[in-house]
Design goal:
With 245 residues, the protein is of the alpha+beta class. Helices cover 29% and strands 34% of the residues. The radius of gyration is 18 Å and the shape is globular.
Length: 245
């Protein structure tokens, strides 16, 4: 008997997010599901770019602030996955004598790793809103002393760790906008001191249970069934690995 192999190629849905920085980022719908380590491999294997924490903030913000009824089902999907699981950003947070925040850290043995010596060498002299940046902006550093746990929406937008995680003040203000769509004040999960260096990864979660607040995760281990949107690479664009340390 002669066998016939069926192959189907369907068009994928692309979600464009146009930011205040006049930058358009294309996200592929639906989002991937898996651990940080799994998605770190799966998304690039499909020819896509992993989202930084700021990228994830941008797509979530677009979903929560959408006013176009034609796109309501996509906005509702974004809100739903925020309720169902952590939405991941591939931004590492290294707690040591201060806090280093790096987009697209290496992953070794299923864990994000950040070499502190390399991080220190990479830092530049530019400082904004209490955050010190590398020349390419992929690395940020802040000292301890930032507020954690529950806080007012306006304080989330001014929080130095949140600004560092979201790349800049604009990103932190987008998180404040998202938080304002919840009934209670937002919550920042992060470490305030460590006895020895620890590296964590970033994520967002919309807790609509008894609490109903936005949870900004700066202390995630990257396990569980989180979600992340793949980002469409632009023609000729370098991979994040080529841009990072």
């Amino acid at each position: 008997m002669v066998e016939s192999l069926l192959q189907v190629r369907e068009g994928r849905t692309e979600l464009d997010v146009i930011s205040d920085r006049q930058k358009t980022t294309t996200f592929i719908h639906p989002a991937y599901q898996g651990t940080y380590s799994e998605l770190n491999d799966r998304i690039p294997a499909d020819g896509l770019i992993r989202p930084s924490f700021r990228d994830s903030v941008d797509i979530v913000h677009a979903g929560f602030t959408n006013k176009n009824p034609d796109y309501a089902k996509y906005a509702d999907y974004i809100k739903k996955i925020m309720k169902d699981a952590w939405v991941r950003g591939f931004t590492g947070i290294h707690y040591s004598k201060g806090v280093f925040v790096l987009d697209f850290p290496d992953v070794v043995n299923n864990t994000a790793v950040m070499n502190e010596s390399d991080l220190e060498k990479k830092l530049g002299s530019r400082e904004e809103d209490g955050v010190v940046y590398s020349d390419d902006g992929l690395l940020r550093f802040i000292p301890y002393g930032f507020k954690t746990e529950e806080m007012k929406v306006k304080d989330l937008a001014r929080n130095r760790l949140v600004i560092a995680m979201a790349q800049d003040r604009e990103g932190a203000e987008k998180l404040a906008d998202i938080a304002d769509k919840h009934r209670k004040n937002p919550y920042l999960l992060a470490l305030t001191s460590v006895n020895e260096p620890v590296t964590r990864v970033s994520a967002l979660f919309s807790d609509w249970g008894l609490v109903n607040w936005l949870n900004v995760g700066g202390g995630s281990h990257g396990g569980g069934g989180g979600r992340a949107f793949g980002v469409q690479r632009k023609t000729g664009e370098a991979s994040p690995a080529e841009k990072s340390l």
